[in-house]
Amino acid sequence: MHRRVPQQFFDRIAYPVIPAFVVAGSRERVGGMLAAWWSQLSFKPLLMGVLIAPERFTYRLVSEAGKFSINLIDFKYVDSMPYIGDVSERFLVGKIGKAGLHVEWDGETGIPYIAESRAYILLDLVDRRPYGDHDLFVGRVLGAYADEAFRDGLWDLNVYRPLMYLGRSKRPAKVRRVYVTFDGVLRRELDFAGGGLERYSRRRYAVLNELRRVAKDFQDLEGDVFREKVLEVLKKYGLGEDDLEYYIEELRRGRG
Ligand SMILES: Cc1cc2nc3c(=O)[nH]c(=O)nc-3n(C[C@H](O)[C@H](O)[C@H](O)COP(=O)(O)O)c2cc1C
Prior knowledge:
The protein is α+β, with helices and mostly antiparallel strands. It has 2 domains: 7-180, Pnp Oxidase, Chain A; 198-255. The protein is 25% helix and 29% strand. It has helices at residues 57-65, 81-85, 95-98, 198-216, 224-236, 241-255; strands spanning 20-25, 30-35, 38-42, 47-52, 67-72, 103-105, 112-114, 119-131, 134-146, 150-151, 154-155, 164-168, 177-180. The strands form 4 sheets. The chain has a 7-stranded antiparallel sheet with strand order 2-1-5-8-9-4-3. A two-stranded antiparallel sheet has the order 6-7. Helix 4 runs antiparallel to helix 5 (224-236) and helix 5 (224-236) packs across helix 6 (241-255). The longest helix is centred in the last third of the chain and has 19 residues, at 198-216. The protein starts with 19 loop residues before the first strand and ends with a helix. The mean pLDDT is 96. The site of flavin mononucleotide has 22 residues, from strand 2, strand 4 and helix 1. Flavin mononucleotide binds at residues 19, 31, 33-37, 51-53, 56-58, 85-90, 134, 165, 177.
């Protein structure tokens, strides 16, 4: 039985989230903050987005530097988080150092990152646009580095205990933030589209692959000839006009 969630808690439904520790700046002034609102945005090109309010000093640092890093922190550093996520560099200069953490500089790009992080991603700022009270900062991934807990493309969660954020209590009571991590690991490896789903998955990718082959022969994905060709393929798979625009858009994006 579901109960209606009051609006003041809407943002908490998506938690727990592993916050990005966003770091930016110059040798003269470097800073950073926690951002629960972040995501990969695209594979090709590899883009990541993070939402930052204009009030944050980090907003200024990222805007001025035009580059930044996203750092992932182990739960063992949880006690440092009030410096990073509650206090502003504008009012506590050198807060990262005061939190007991260390900034290092990537030799190639000059981007600052956190030495204690489990992993960090180096980003070149390519776009910034407002959404309500935050701005979406979009970064193109220049490189990523991880420590020994990241093996063969997967985290070993017996080693890495991700710092996760669950939310905070509301004022006027004293505000308390809640951070959590995994205690023990429930793990299951599932076949892709397992449990009898294989044939649906096969059909889905057969359509896509055939359309991609078709698109290769066309310079111009806007023309009527191409549309006809795509529709022909869709019909073969029991799809129709309703889906046409979406598949054409998908193929256009693939070109990006
Ligand atoms: C777990 C957590 C998640 C947060 N997520 C965001 C976020 O996504 N975007 C944002 O603008 N601020 C977010 N904040 C708030 C900033 O981290 C906070 O205001 C910080 O003090 C800003 O520091 P600065 O002024 O030095 O940049 C978050 C804080 C915490 C503790």
